[in-house]
């Protein structure tokens, strides 16, 4: 007759103690790579978020009306007027006055030299677009002043096909204050675009759907990125022979991890 073999109480206690020691050691060994992986994932997410935000801002800057980029470093904030399309206006022949843009007196219709690239006629009686000629971004020649270089907000713009060129008609005559040396005409959105850093709420927001004006009024906004803990925006207007430069720096932080990304965007300000 065989006796049943088993663990004694002492043996069972020893097994529990040894198992606990092994588990503690293994937990410490395994925890480090897991924490490292989680930290790496968090950093990668922050880098991706910052990079996406900077790319979005850069895209808008590159489409900005020349000399419309402006920066308020106290916010900091960045604003610009979006260019929809550009073309050269007809100033010389043919003799038909309706096909030439007159600067004195005012004018309500004229032709382009060539055709628009992005806009497809007909564009019928739209106040979504405004026309700009020779915006210099200075007093007396700034689109933000809603005078001299930009058609009024209430003026409707109609664009029709006229063979090898396009015909532009305004609902009311307007006198552009300055001729462009290269006869450049810009069609812009009636609503500018702004980016405002709000480090108090850790967000970068994009504002739109507000009217062009000397000051930035409030408008509808969307969150571009979260976890924003530091932000700087600077603008170097450049010179006659050198393009302007916007420098952007975003710092995103989350869960003890922090990343800072710097991006510079060249701005063509030839009006």
Word description of this protein:
By secondary structure, the chain is an alpha+beta fold. It has two domains: 40-78 and 190-265, no CATH class; 80-188, no CATH class. The chain is 20% helix and 37% strand. The strands form three sheets. Strands 5-7-8-4-3-9-6 form a seven-stranded antiparallel sheet, with no helix packed on it. It is elongated. Pfam families: N_methyl. Keywords: Membrane, Transmembrane, Transmembrane helix. The chain crosses the membrane at residues 12-30. This is Pilus assembly protein MshO.
Q: Let me know the number of strands.
A: 15
Unreliable sequence segments = none
Radius of gyration of CA atoms, rounded to a whole number: 30 Å
SS strand fraction: 35-45%
- Helical segment tally? 1
Distance between the termini: 108 Å
**Domains counted in the coordinates: how many?**
2
Assign an overall shape.
elongated
Pfam family, one: N_methyl
Keywords: Membrane, Transmembrane, Transmembrane helix
InterPro entries: N_methyl_site (IPR012902), Pilin-like (IPR045584)
Protein name: Pilus assembly protein MshO
């Amino acid at each position: 007759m065989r006796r049943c073999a088993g663990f004694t109480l002492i043996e069972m206690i020893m097994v529990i103690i040894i198992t606990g020691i092994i588990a503690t050691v293994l937990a410490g060994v395994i925890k480090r790579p897991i924490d490292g992986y989680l930290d790496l994932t968090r950093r990668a997410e922050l880098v991706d978020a910052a990079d996406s935000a900077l790319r979005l801002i850069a895209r808008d800057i590159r489409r900005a009306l020349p000399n419309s980029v402006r920066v308020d470093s106290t916010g900091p904030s960045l604003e610009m007027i979006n260019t929809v399309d550009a073309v050269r206006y007809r100033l010389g022949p043919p003799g038909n006055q309706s096909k030439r843009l007159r600067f004195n007196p005012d004018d309500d219709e004229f032709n382009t030299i060539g055709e628009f690239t992005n806009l497809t006629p007909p564009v019928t009686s739209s106040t979504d677009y405004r026309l700009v000629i020779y915006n210099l971004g200075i007093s007396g020649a700034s689109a933000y002043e809603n005078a001299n270089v930009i058609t009024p907000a209430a003026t409707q713009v109609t664009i029709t096909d006229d063979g090898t060129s396009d015909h532009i008609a305004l609902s009311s005559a307007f006198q552009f204050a300055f001729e462009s040396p290269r006869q450049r005409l810009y069609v812009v959105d009636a609503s500018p675009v702004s980016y405002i850093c709000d480090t108090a709420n850790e967000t970068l927001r994009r504002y739109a759907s507000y009217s062009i004006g000397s000051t930035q009024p409030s408008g509808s906004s969307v969150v571009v990125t979260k976890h924003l803990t530091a932000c700087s925006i600077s603008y170097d207007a450049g010179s006659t022979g050198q393009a302007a430069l916007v420098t952007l720096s975003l710092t995103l932080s989350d869960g003890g991890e922090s990343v800072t990304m710097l991006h510079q965007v060249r701005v063509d300000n030839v009006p």
